[in-house]
Amino acid sequence: MKIGIVCYPTFGGSGVVATELGTALAAKGHQVHFISYSQPVRLDFSGNLFYHEVSVSDYPLFDYQPYELVLSSKLVDVVKYEKLDLLHVHYAIPHASAAYMAKQILASQGINIPFITTLHGTDITLVGKDPSFEPVITFAINQSDAVTAVSESLKKDTYANFPSVNKEISVIPNFIRLEDYKIENTHCEKKMYAPYGERILIHVSNFRKVKRVEDVLHVFNQIKKVIPSKLILVGDGPERANIEKLCRELDTCSDIKSLGKIVNPEQILSVADLFLLTSETESFGLAALEAMASKVPVISTNSGGIPEVNIHGYSGYMSNVGDVDDMAKNAIHILKDDATLATFKANAYEQAQKFDITKILPMYEDLYNKVLGI
Ligand code: GMT
Q: I want to staple 154 with a disulfide (CB 3.0 to 4.6 A). Which of 11, 106, 273, 283 is the partner?
């Protein structure tokens, strides 16, 4: 099959999922063409993988460059000349509407190209909720040949936030490739971050407001008063400066290491004892799943699709958004002794196994076959 994948190339979860999906499809013999404005950060080339860049000109008339139009034109070009069988667009805005436009242009030339839209989260729960996007998103979802959402919660939110959506949505959860997480000999590295055997906590995100990274600091501040511990922050984003300010106010900077953006977080996750995910909302929480695949239990909020990933009292604990006292109490329970921590670590890994790519990839392939009538 020849598949075109449209995604954001950045560190966000949707780009990672799209890249890992395309890579796995290519490994199974499909020809996969990525179409984006820059090469996806996790994309490693192999024989079956191709990348087509969408470059927007900076004509001075435009205060805002018409990315969606350029993307549509690029899709027309790639579908036509690479003879693609289908398009799979990740994140509704503006990828689904660009795919619809490309489909119509190609139809006028006698070419039929089905497109699948995968909804990832903020395209529905945050940005997408903005009334200025609503009619276009609703239309593009309804016009898609198939639609998937990464969790049951996101599917429900889509119908709730977009009442005129009448398209059947299939839930295909996010995944990890477990074999990437088999990292041994972390002892030395652990010592680099925790020289006196302190517990290591970790948070990975894009430091946007929705992640409530300040709660991570407040939880950590409570934990370290009871259990010697260190905190590793991975990622970068608009809230980073506020977080640095808060760590000075709380006088915790000497126990926190900020590593910035990391393309493959497996190595650093493998040294951690506990993952903190304090988000206001999270359609799935891929970062938590990546932690669990690294045998790291998760302290999280119970919002959105997180309960479909993190099992309360088993792979970690969940608390209401903003309840930092409860999060700290649960974290201390997990970290208090080696035996309890080992149990939670084993459980986290067990739970992660449900989301191994070998279980999820066939769901996408089945959907592709269905759309193509194979
Ligand atoms: O987390 C983000 O802000 C980035 C965003 C994205 O689209 O890249 O992540 C969303 O998609 C991920 C992959 O499906 C999900 O695991 C995240 O939970 C979701 N983020 C939110 O819903 C806030």
A: 283
Sign of CA dihedral 5, 7, 13, 16: positive
Angle subtended at Cα 293 by Cα 290 and Cα 298, rounded to the nearest 5 degrees: 70
Please give the Cα distance from 286 to 13 (Å, whole number).
Answer: 6
* Global confidence as pTM: 0.94
- DSSP 3-state assignment of 101? helix
206 lines ligand 1 (CB under 6 A): yes
Alpha carbon distances (Å) from 224 to 12, 61, 308, 356, 361: 30, 55, 29, 33, 41
Q: Is the bond preceding 40 in cis, omega lying within 30 degrees of 0? A: no
| Exposure on the CB side of residue 115, measured as CA atoms within 13 A | 33
| pLDDT tens per residue across all 374 residues of the chain | 999 999 999 877 899 999 999 999 999 999 999 999 999 988 887 789 999 999 987 777 777 789 999 999 999 999 999 999 999 999 999 999 999 999 999 999 999 999 999 999 988 887 877 888 999 999 999 999 999 999 999 999 999 999 999 999 999 999 999 999 988 766 668 999 999 999 999 999 999 999 999 999 999 999 999 999 999 999 999 999 999 999 999 999 999 999 999 988 999 999 999 999 999 999 999 999 999 999 999 999 999 999 999 999 999 999 999 999 999 999 999 999 999 999 999 999 999 999 999 999 999 999 999 999 99
Cβ–ligand 1 distance for 308 under 6 Å, the answer: no
Give the domains, in start order, of the chain with CATH numbers: 2-175+356-372 (3.40.50.2000), 178-355 (3.40.50.2000)
- Going from the Cα of 330 to the center of ligand 1, the distance in angstroms, rounded, reads 25
Atom number, ligand 1, closest to the C-alpha of residue 282: 22
Joined together, the tokens standing for residue 280 give: 């206001």
260-93-115-359 Cα dihedral, nearest 10 degrees: 40
Quote the ligand 1 centre to 175 CA distance (angstroms). 13
Q: Which residues pair with 274 in a beta bridge?
A: 201
- Collapsing DSSP states into helix, strand and coil, what is residue 157? helix
Q: How far is the CA of 52 from the centre of ligand 1 (A)?
A: 24
The 10 Å Cβ neighbour count of residue 346 is 13
Q: Which of 195, 215, 191 has its CA nearest to residue 203?
A: 215
Paired tokens of 150: 């990464």
